[in-house]
Amino acid sequence: MPDTHLEPADIELLIDDEQSPGAAPLAAHAAQCDPCRAALDEARFVAEMLSTAPHLKPTREFTERVMGSVEVSSPWHVALTDSVLAVVPERGTTRTGMLVAALFAGLLTTAGVVWLALRADQAAMVAGMVAERGRTVGIRIGNDVAGALFGPTAVDLLREHGFTAVALAIPAFLLTAAAALMGFRALGVAARTRRG
Amino acid sequence: MPTTRIELENLPDADVVALAQQGREDAFREIIRRYERPVFSLVYRMVRDREVAEDLAQDAFIRVLNNLDKYRSEFKLSSWLFKIANNVAIDHLRKRQLDTISIHGSPNAATASEIEATTIDIDSGEENALDEMEAKELGSAIERAIAQLRPEYRACIMLRHVEGRSYEEIATTLDLPLGTVKTYIHRARHELREALEHLRE
After folding, report:
1. Which chain A residues are Cβ-neighbours of B32 within 8 angstroms?
2. Chain B CB contacts of A50 below 8 Å
3. How many angstroms separate the CA of residue A105 from the nearest CA in chain B?
4. Which of A72, A85, A87, A88 to mutate to test the interface with B (most CBs of B within 10 A)?
5. Environment class of A72 (CB within 10 Å of its CB; exposed 0-12, middle 13-18, buried 19+)
6. Interface touch A49/B142, C-beta < 8 Å
7. Which residues 6+ apart lie within 8 Å of B79 measured at CB?
8. How far is residue B89's CA from residue A55's CA, in Å, rounded to a whole number?
9. ipTM field
10. pLDDT digits (tens, 9 = 90+) for B92-108
11. What SS3 state is found at B166?
12. Which residues of B touch A67 (CB under 8 A)?
């Protein structure tokens, strides 16, 4: 046990690590020496006060504000895994049920694709028939609409010149409509000005 | 691969960082969740302004999270965060000169006399009055006493006693010589003892 009073460094040592080998004689001295014990108690008091200083909490928006400025880029395999895991239920029974349903759906789809592949010629023929039928109906509707809007001349023109006529007619129609709209608007403004 | 928040919460920092490096957003959020309070507390006690502290703490997190690919696993994530947070807080104080800042000219100063000789003091010329909000949150005597310390003392004493860091860790975190850290903590304790003396009577 040292005969002299504790130095500030000795008190620091006792505060920081009372279990260290050099601390025992210092602690023994402090136990017997009133001034040193008082100094040690005072230092301990400060350390205890400091340890009660709480962690302060930022606002709720803190995380989102940080995340808004952080570049998070997932590799494709991580993004894919996350997407799959996001739809997999966490409960065991639900997960099993979903797995069975997914397997069944996969089986049906595979069977359908294989069946279609084996009958590709028939599928192509059916698709061709459907496409031809759709084209015929489309042309008929187009003729009816053009006839109703622009009269039989437009229909004849359409039949005679096909897509070229359509390509010319649409911009011409739009320009004419826009010019008419502006003209009517100008007339309206002029009428209001005269009344005013 | 952990998917739930509970699983992430149980992982050590290094694993969470590894997941964040893979682009896992929930890992980024976990890092923020773990350290938002310690980092914000450190910065708040340095600058003593909630709004500024929040901006600076946010800046520290953004710098760290956007540079996670440069993270070295031998360095503690928390130490890295504290280091950046301390730097942004000190930079802010230097720019604004809101407080009494000691700029230690020599990073190699290890003794009290060397520190004294290489220290420049900048006085703000105004009292460090806490506003109402700060007074509410930093209302206790210890908080007021901490607020009176120099910023670099504050960082050292907070890391030592609130975060429980060793002297060596504090030296590494704050890029200070070990002797300087010991001196700062010793001086901080001395000043705190004087400031809190009335409470022991």
Report:
1. 62-63, 66-67
2. 142, 146, 157, 161-162, 192
3. 26
4. A72
5. middle
6. yes
7. B165, B169, B172, B173
8. 17
9. 0.73
10. 998 876 444 444 444 44
11. coil
12. 25, 28-29, 32
Predicted TM-score (pTM) of this structure: 0.59
CA distance B169 to B166: 5
Half-sphere exposure of B168 (CA within 13 A, CB side): 2
Distance of residue A32 Cα from the nearest chain B Cα, in angstroms: 21
Q: Which of B28, B40, B200 is opposite residue A45, by nearest beta carbon?
A: B200
Task: Give the start-end residues of each E strand in chain B.
Answer: 101-104, 119-122
Helix or strand holding residue B104 (H, E):
strand B101-104
Q: What is the pLDDT of residues A64-106, one digit of tens each?
A: 999 999 888 777 777 777 777 777 777 778 888 888 998 999 9
Could you tell me how far CA B15 lies from the centroid of its own chain? 24
Q: In the Cβ-directed half-sphere of B45, how many Cα atoms lie within 13 Å?
A: 34
Q: How many CB atoms lie within 10 A of CB A54?
A: 11
Residues 6+ apart with CB under 8 A from B137: A56, B50, B143
In A, which residues are within 8 Å of B155 by CB distance?
Answer: none
Length of chain B: 201
Contacts of B162 in chain A (CB under 8 A): 50-51, 53, 55
CA distance B18 to chain A (A): 12
Of the residues B4, B21, B32, the best mutation for testing chain A's interface (the one with the most A CB atoms within 10 Å of its CB) is B32
**pLDDT tens per residue, range B3-55:** 566 688 889 999 999 999 888 888 999 999 999 999 999 999 999 889 999 99
Listed in sequence order, the DSSP H helices in B70-177 are 77-96, 112-117, 132-137, 141-147, 151-157, 167-174
State how far the Cα of A48 lies from the Cα of A55, in Å rounded to an integer.
15
